[in-house]
Specification:
α1 packs antiparallel against α5 (106-126), α3 (58-81) packs across α4 (92-101) and α3 (58-81) runs antiparallel to α7. The protein is 65% helix and 5% strand. By secondary structure, it is mainly α. It starts with 17 loop residues before the first helix and ends with a helix. Strands 1-2 form a two-stranded antiparallel sheet. The longest helix has 27 residues, at 146-172.
């Protein structure tokens, strides 16, 4: 198994069904609960284990998800209020380190992740068909429709949940 991409790399087709879109939103909505279930009963020592050599620790993965998905809300709003805006990439590793620097409690991060996902889902669920086609441009990854962004954040949720499971399933067995 490729520990860096345990569910393979992101792929997307503009020719997707409404059921696929619904599945993406379900995956986004359920991520915070799935993470809580996965780490339930894990000691702080387990949460400090990286999912692979030179990879993030479980706590860092959760921090990264909050950082990324908070940025997703900003990207959604930009795409809904501007024509094809260029979004600003950020240094994911540096952002994770900031959280460690200030000793942010994991529970605060988990609660914020729940709230962030609730807000993301409310925005996605309110989109009209035309709004799903609105775009933003990522200078590092190209153009994204809001439909593609939903697919990406669903994949991203499952991708990092799989990273968490690499550790928890090994440690719980």
């Amino acid at each position: 198994m490729n520990k860096q991409y345990p569910i393979d790399k992101f792929s997307y087709s503009e020719d997707h069904s409404p059921e696929e879109r619904e599945s993406w939103l379900d995956d986004i909505a359920l991520l915070p609960e799935r993470i809580r279930n996965e780490i339930d009963g894990c000691s702080d020592d387990i949460l400090m284990i990286p999912y692979r050599e030179n990879g993030w620790m479980i706590r860092e993965v959760i921090t990264h998800l909050l950082d990324s998905h908070t940025n997703a809300i900003i990207r959604l709003k930009l795409a809904l209020t501007e024509d094809d805006p260029v979004i600003r990439p950020y240094d994911q590793n540096a952002w994770v380190e900031v959280e460690e620097q200030f000793d942010i409690p994991l529970e605060l991060t988990l609660q914020m992740l729940e709230d962030t996902h609730e807000k993301m889902i409310r925005i996605y669920e309110s989109l009209t068909e035309d709004q799903w086609k609105r775009t933003y441009n990522n200078p590092e990854a190209g153009s994204f429709t809001l439909a593609k962004s939903a697919a990406l954040y669903a994949w991203h949720s499952n991708h990092h949940l799989a990273h968490i499971r690499l550790v928890t399933q090994h440690e719980k067995s």
